[in-house]
Amino acid sequence: MRKSLIAVGVIVILGAAWTGSAWYTGKQFEQRLPALLDEANARIKTTFPEAGVKLAVQDYHRALFSSRLNVVLLSDGSTGDNKPLKPGDEIVIRENVDHGPFPFAQLKKGVFIPSMASVQSRLAETPFVKPLIAASQGKSPVSAVTRVGYSGDTVSAIDFAPLDYKDADSLVRSSGGQLNAAIDHDLNKVTLDGALSSLVVAGINQFQQREQVTLHDVSVDSDTHKGKQGYSIGDNTLKVKSLIYNLDGKDMLNTDNLSQVTTATEDGDKLNVQVAYSLDMLHVQGQEFGSGKLTVKLSNLDAKAIAQFSDRYHNQVQQIMQQTGAADPAVQQEQITQALITNLPLALKGSPYLSIAPLSWKNSKGESAFNLTLNVNDPSQLPPGAPATTPELQLARFVNKLDAKLTIPLDMATELTTQFAKIQGYNADEAQKLAKQQVQGLAAMGQMFKLTTVDDNVLSSSFHYADNQVNLNGQKMSLQNFLGLFGLFGAPDSPTQPVQPQAVPQP
User: Domain coordinates of the chain in residue numbers?
Assistant: First the structure.
């Protein structure tokens, strides 16, 4: 009997302690809401300055073990065709909050980690999202369960409901998917992983043709943190097992295992960004065109200069896009291009590098590859002088070093060109004959202008530029002489005659 009384007493004490903690953390959560809201709106303003939206909290009700509130995304009052929400539009997220230290929602899932709160979120039906809810068969298209730690860190499990939306001109159909997100209290460290089984998007293009893109097995994996200069540092991976592009009911293009891996690193006050693409197979109208890889790297970027370039460029673009009246799209595009050119010298501070290593394409007959390394001059460090009025002076002013190498097996090029000819309507024999003629003609032309060489049935070219001197396939010449080979930028500084091409081996 005494043991039972002791057990009951312990339970009562624990229950009282839990009740007190739940009340306290609920109160703490309520007190932190205004600061969290202000911080979220500041982040939105900084990250998406052109969106014209803000967050608000409505209908907050706090009880002992739980609270309820609505988080509302609405227009900040600014207008424009590029604004996702117009004044009066609202996206309402209903939040049910279970207080800690052991929220009931987490206990039911078998999670016994002490937490400030567990938040269940779902979209409410407003006029703006009503079509989406109808397409999700009356369910919230997005829902989430988030565990909020006492430090402010959050772990979320986000579910996307199956979606089937269709009108006269467009279609969106999704199998639904999941996204897991872990975000620390100051939004510095973010980890994401998620998957989507299938997504179909269709519509009518400007030529009144029906286009449809189908994706299968899409996955995302991201692990980033904020670096010393305020940029996201880390890895992002996006994979698509299959992508199909259909035009007017015919599959025009589809890919196997397409992936993009982005890596950002920090070295002191310098940034390095690498983007790597890979593709296992490209099919064009039923023809196998081969596989490819592309890796592009920007290094030695001055972080502060990049931020300054980004701010100025985006501010100017925003002003251009906000022009009232019937603005000519061609004129707007010209203004945007000019804004990029005007501000680009800011991004070149510190003399950054661009490398492509490699751009490659492979089919059953071989693999072609292109590699490039470009080091540009820092415009702010160039000595003052007369304006660069000729192409060679402009290149010498902005380019410090340039190295490039190209290798193309002729059999590989012939096979690729044959496939292009087949999809244009030629039969197999005609396509191969035409491809041989075209590849041999291009190889001969490259040799005539000393741009390429052919050895062991492989076309190749190497180029090196530094200090106003060019080394092209082992032949040294001035930059002006090199440009004069094309007859486009004036005569070379010394007589240069095209050489007769070597015999190109028959594929």
Answer: 16-161, 383-484
